[in-house]
Amino acid sequence: MAEPLNIALAGLGTVGTGVVRLIETNAELIARRAGRPIRIVAVSARDRSKDRGVDLSRYDWEDDPAAMTVREDVDVVVELVGGSDGPALTLVRGAITHGKGLVTANKAMIAHHGLELAAAAEQAGVALKFEAAVAGGIPVIKGLSEGAAANAIDRVYGILNGTCNYILSTMEDTGADFGDVLADAQRLGYAEADPTFDIEGVDAAHKLSILAAIAFGARLRFDAVETMGVSRVKAADIEQARALGYVIRLIGTAEIDRSGGSPSLFQRVRPHLVPFGHPLAHVDGPTNAVVAEGNFMGRLLFQGAGAGDGPTASAVVADIIDIARGEKGATFSMPAGELEAMEPALTGHRLGRSYIRFTVHDRPGVLAEITAAMRDANVSIESLIQKGDPDNDGEVILAMVTHEGPESAVSEAMRILEGSDSLAAQPLVMQIIGE
Amino acid sequence: MAEPLNIALAGLGTVGTGVVRLIETNAELIARRAGRPIRIVAVSARDRSKDRGVDLSRYDWEDDPAAMTVREDVDVVVELVGGSDGPALTLVRGAITHGKGLVTANKAMIAHHGLELAAAAEQAGVALKFEAAVAGGIPVIKGLSEGAAANAIDRVYGILNGTCNYILSTMEDTGADFGDVLADAQRLGYAEADPTFDIEGVDAAHKLSILAAIAFGARLRFDAVETMGVSRVKAADIEQARALGYVIRLIGTAEIDRSGGSPSLFQRVRPHLVPFGHPLAHVDGPTNAVVAEGNFMGRLLFQGAGAGDGPTASAVVADIIDIARGEKGATFSMPAGELEAMEPALTGHRLGRSYIRFTVHDRPGVLAEITAAMRDANVSIESLIQKGDPDNDGEVILAMVTHEGPESAVSEAMRILEGSDSLAAQPLVMQIIGE
């Protein structure tokens, strides 16, 4: 058997210790598959004394992860420090400069600096791989960049954040409101102490921008992802949606828009209504799922565990095995210089059906005002549910679904109603995805 | 850009012409992704004069595909002739001998001769790839052999035959009986004129044996797949299953059985009852889906188009792109010599719930005889449905679901009842899969 592939591991949180455990547990199998053993030579983390439940004494300890990038006995640096910039970015740049292969689970760093890093890795002739950055244990980066490589892909979408999906599907099962479920999720470890990145859709936007670059051969544009999280979804929305035949899911969607002159890039993360018959409607709990539509393969679905130490470690080690096999791959499925610069797509002309939830004061004339605004904006209403009695504040929920029409019309209706004292809160608009 | 990768295409049926169309349509994109153009230099088929809807005049025509294997300008031979032996096998052996890479969609050939061919390809230092042999456009070979490579996988199962799935889900939707739906499927092109390989489960068994070898690192044992097709499933079974909360799907399951001394190989293709809540219950029409369970990644699901010229061509060309990128891969995820020889697993000790359908003569004592046989074999009955009125022959359908127990007990009950003149036909036993 060939020489081992030597790796150094920076960051020993749940994913880092998961990687250690995986490499130790499956060592023999991995060596058979990779054609050579994978050997951890050095590890690094902030706190050396912390008990992580794995025996690290057989590996060299580096107080400064930068030391790993200059060790002659290290082939691949595994960055699991986290954070889009700071120490993680310094480490990755250093590793590439020193000719080390680089494996990371860091979606924020790839979303912000992926193009620069890919170009640097190409120039240095080293691998830069990040399967674990998107959808945890699901090999969707590989699935798109290699499995679907023969296809022009015009659309990729899916459930990219396990925390949000856990919250929405638990709200669905229990009827509880957002805040209560979030608190439970934090207690159970499904949501972080500061859950902002997850629940406001930023984490999903990181992942979506990476998928879009790979699927479309487009330059990464994380800055252009239109993002709305799940914190405004109420139990009442989930109840109305169910009555109408839908579940609510936080969906990231990226499309190439060819309606203008040159192709432009549509990227959106938002809660959507998903019809019961759609495969994504059955994705519950912290599961992730990604759908890609290719011009020859048709619709392809990947589904699995979107987070957790085991699944994420599985993706990290799959990347390491690729490198051990001598299969570096192109970072975004093609050389960075080949990626096409695309402007963000306009969205007003997009056709679709929308769900709109109003919280209104319970008094005469309110319904007339809202329906008049819809008429004036040329929005055609398919169905409307006013939910029983007003609450203690004298407010009622009014939910409607529109017929298919341009998004600009719905925006216009919202503009007309802006500041109206009939409304007790800002309306919530959610798109409905097709079968 | 680097030199083109030159390919020669043997077999110009729907998949072969699909490959030509794909390579022509997506040529520019493929060159960006592969880092070099993919160029068809020669084609071959039995009938040169046939109109295939694509212009083949720009490619050399070879009457004898063997000529492709000795052309100096050919890097990769694509075998789409079909058949486990005969001309396809001769062509593939010849290509490998002459140092050509080989891409094929031929599941029968790989199931029967995969080990021999993998060893030959390794020795010659050429790629042997067959993504299109399993589950059409779904990159499941790559997903298991690379994406899930860090995991010990103990179980892989799924819907592997689009024809059977189309028939079962259409029976479900229409209430029609097997024969009528099959005739429709043949008219619509979803089933072949001779559908035996599909409906008797042989095609699914070919695919399952390939998946098992890759997932488990086991030597291929197509001969040991226990196979039963869908031709005995009646509309009444589907109706009963639905009433009990299940759909019926032809499922191929492979597992490593560690209950004995050394690990043994369980491989079975059979119609199963699938609970509504399971992801496979929502796989309708000619779609395929594969689930793999790994010790770190958890449960992973791949779903997509299982057949058709576009999806199959997508998988064939993905393999060609891998070769163009210099990524040959190990044929069964590890060198052929590393694959472990496993004996077929015994099945009697397997625990599970079963559905049993009896067709009985409508007369006193029949139910007593059947339930006594169950008692004597120690099979515990969970529920029992006797369907209304006898048909014209005085026969009635009696369906039951057992509590969990060993398969040997159900077999013993069937043995006791064998030859009983209460039974108008051989009972049908189907396993029920868990959530």
UniProtKB/TrEMBL annotation, chains A, B:
Q: Which GO terms describe its molecular function?
A: homoserine dehydrogenase activity; NADP binding
Q: Per UniProt, where does NADPH bind?
A: K107
Q: What's in the keyword line of the UniProt record?
A: Amino-acid biosynthesis, Methionine biosynthesis, NADP, Oxidoreductase, Threonine biosynthesis
- Sequence positions that bind NADP(+): A10, G11, L12, G13, T14, V15, G16, T17
Domain ACT per the UniProt entry, residue ranges: 355-431
Q: Does the keyword Oxidoreductase apply?
A: yes
A single BP term in Gene Ontology: methionine biosynthetic process
Give the Pfam families listed for this entry. ACT (PF01842), Homoserine_dh (PF00742), NAD_binding_3 (PF03447)
Q: Where along the chain is L-homoserine bound?
A: E192
Pathway the protein contributes to: Amino-acid biosynthesis; L-threonine biosynthesis; L-threonine from L-aspartate: step 3/5; Amino-acid biosynthesis; L-methionine biosynthesis via de novo pathway; L-homoserine from L-aspartate: step 3/3
Active site as annotated: K207 (proton donor)
Q: Which family does it belong to?
A: Belongs to the homoserine dehydrogenase family.
Q: What is this protein called?
A: Homoserine dehydrogenase
